[in-house]
Amino acid sequence: MTALSVHGLHKRYGRVPVLNGVDLDVARGSVTAILGPSGCGKTTLLRIVAGFDRADAGTVTLNGTDVSSGRTVLPPDKRAIGYVAQEGALFPHLDVQANITFGLPYLTTGRRQRRDRAAALLELVSLDPSLARRYPHQLSGGQQQRVALARALARKPSLILLDEPFSSLDAALREATRTAVVATLKAENISTLLVTHDQAEALSMADHIAVMTDGRFTQTGPPQQLYARPATLGTALLLGPASTLDGTVDNGRASCPLGALPLTRHCPDGDATVVIRPEQLHLSDAGTTADTGATVIGCEFFGADTVVTVRIAGGATIRARAAGTTPYHPGRPVAVTVHGPVHAYPRQGPGSRPDDVPPADGPGSR
Ligand SMILES: Nc1ncnc2c1ncn2[C@@H]1O[C@H](COP(=O)(O)OP(=O)(O)OP(=O)(O)O)[C@@H](O)[C@H]1O
């Protein structure tokens, strides 16, 4: 069952086209992440779905009812949509309870009902109900984001829109808040559209990812599928860190300075850009640099793993990830092996540059 359907959405600001025919379906109860570089049109799409802005053409359908189509444009408060903005945007002069119950109709909801509803929602977003009398400035950033979510949930929306809701939180808080928010959305069976340019957020939170480039979706699918088979070089780089090497594809294998490597997806014969993830690169001892032509030039320790930068034969650099610490420090010669198939994209033509979109009938188009 589809909670949200968007078809043929176009929007321009002045002469500048921002959305160029956006199509998207969000399944009921699922989390769909829109992942894309800054300025590609993510927030514009969210604002049109919420009813804050008007599309120039196209339709928005919520649970089978058109809310934006031709001359019919339902105002935001008639759409049963919750919206959580980047900074949470709580009312600073209202306490937590008043913030959460702000959108509830006064005449139909008594004081006691409002207090009970606020307490229940606080519990739902894993916050202590004793916070109800605090003001936003007395809360941490993560607590404020959860109150913002509780406020969006108060009116029992069928769809919730999250616009980079965790970007202002530090890494540890972001992860904890993300987990709590996903658990809440799943528990309430709320359909969710999440806008982010954080690939880890999209991969870990979403059931479905839609990659946006230049105002249209260039590839959609489950996170595992997109990560395994990105349709363009741009999508491959958007989905996670990677080393890129010049190579040549011949009959399903890419020859590059690290060997003749099998491919994850078809790439036509000829000059290509080869994309290798850090977890695919393994380092081992080498006698001297002359043996392998590879030398460690940098080492970054992240706690759970270490990223080692290596200059390989021909002068290109690659980044390998090793669990825990590593014995390979700058200046040390190493041997580099690649595990598993790699992505390769033609160096000329559609999809060859990082910001390219695939051709209309290409593998990533819908
Ligand atoms: N009200 C407006 N008037 C004119 N141009 C606008 C307006 N709102 C957005 N834009 C432009 O439309 C383009 C898309 O903006 P949008 O905010 O949708 O991008 P985004 O993908 O959400 O970016 P970010 O990730 O940086 O938030 C940008 O070039 C932006 O400058």
UniProtKB/TrEMBL annotation:
Region described as Disordered: spans on this chain: 341-366
Q: Which UniProt keywords apply?
A: ATP-binding, Cell membrane, Ion transport, Iron, Iron transport, Membrane, Nucleotide-binding, Transport
Q: Which InterPro entries match?
A: AAA+_ATPase (IPR003593), ABC_SmlMolc_Importer (IPR050093), ABC_transporter-like_ATP-bd (IPR003439), ABC_transporter-like_CS (IPR017871), ABC_transpr_FbpC (IPR015853), Mo/tungstate-bd_C_term_dom (IPR008995), NA-bd_OB-fold (IPR012340), P-loop_NTPase (IPR027417)
Q: Which CDD domains match?
A: ABC_Carb_Solutes_like
Enzyme nomenclature, EC number:
7.6.2.9
| Superkingdom field | Bacteria
State any GO CC term: ATP-binding cassette (ABC) transporter complex
| Record Pfam families | ABC_tran, TOBE_2
A GO molecular-function descriptor: ATP binding
Domain ABC transporter per the UniProt entry, residue ranges: 4-239
Its recorded name reads ABC-type quaternary amine transporter
Query: What lineage is this protein's organism placed in?
Result: Bacteria, Bacillati, Actinomycetota, Actinomycetes, Micromonosporales
